[in-house]
Design goal:
By secondary structure, the chain is mostly helical. It has one domain. The chain has ten helices and four strands; from the N terminus they run E-E-E-E-H-H-H-H-H-H-H-H-H-H. Helix 1 crosses helix 2. It is globular. The two termini are 25 Å apart. The relative contact order is 0.14.
């Protein structure tokens, strides 16, 4: 027998999530395990076909440009959500998404050093001289541990810390606008685990085991490029969820104090 949910008829084998998107359990599981499969596939490629691996993660390679493209495409998505929140009178939510849109643009540019090599410009001498890679970007001005700690903090935010903090702040409503849904947490596991490993666990194990463990302690060269692409897709899923929940069709408004009264579900 089909079951009714929010005035729609849905068969039992189909999940109707909180913002009304019909999605089978199988698809939800596949999406959740994809980042872990991607990490395993990247590691396998390194050991099975190392030249192909290095070609994929090389500077200005397909993985790096894919990451930049994802963030660039997310700029208008976050901007649209910010505009919708502003229209509903949610100033804090609009500001948060506007900042996120700008952040996506900055990350996209930083990822490829603002097209420095493609456009052939040298960049400001003061910036290039201080940059550890001699590039026209800002993130390489940070020390290794400061930059990696920022990645770890973002990973923890996506793993659930963001939802916890949002729930403690009364003005941060709805919480799904400030942190990813629970089902998205797997997309933030790789970035957290990778940088904790290469900065802390790997060196500790290396000091205990000796030089033979060095290849394992450091991991495959430039593996962070794959990790950063996975993180970008995690942000894409977060942005997609926010976009769907702010559509003017009434979905996802049960915990939204700024939803129009006509859209709010009956109690």
């Amino acid at each position: 027998m089909p079951i009714a949910s929010r005035s729609r008829i849905v068969h039992p084998e189909v999940v109707l999530d909180r913002f009304g998107s019909r999605r089978t359990r199988a698809v939800s599981i596949v999406v959740a395990v994809l980042p872990l499969v991607a990490v395993a596939a990247g590691a396998a490629l390194f050991f099975v076909a190392e030249p192909a691996y290095h070609a994929s993660v090389a500077e200005d390679g397909p993985v790096e440009w894919a990451t930049a493209a994802v963030y660039l495409l997310l700029c208008p998505v976050a901007a649209l959500v910010a505009w919708r929140r502003s229209r509903r009178g949610d100033r804090l939510g609009a500001l948060a998404l506007a900042v996120l849109a700008v952040g996506f643009l900055l990350i996209a540019g930083e990822e490829v050093s603002w097209g420095q090599r493609q456009l052939g410009f040298a960049g400001p001498p003061e910036l290039v001289e201080r940059n550890i890679q001699g590039e026209a970007n800002l993130h390489n001005l940070l020390g290794r541990y400061a930059l990696h700690m920022a990645y770890i903090a973002v990973g923890l935010w996506g793993l659930g810390l963001g939802r916890v903090i949002a729930r403690l702040i009364p003005a941060a409503r709805p919480t799904w606008l400030y942190a990813p849904r629970r089902v998205r947490f797997t997309w933030f596991i790789p970035v957290t685990a990778y940088y904790l490993y290469v900065d802390y666990l790997g060196p500790a194990l290396l000091s205990l085991t000796g030089p033979w463990f060095q290849k394992w302690a450091l991991g495959p060269a430039r593996f962070q490029e794959l990790i950063e692409l996975i993180l970008a897709i995690g942000f894409a899923l977060f942005s997609y969820d926010a976009l769907r929940r702010t559509e003017p069709d009434g979905y996802g408004v049960a915990d939204d104090p700024y939803a129009p009264a006509a859209l709010s579900p009956a109690v």
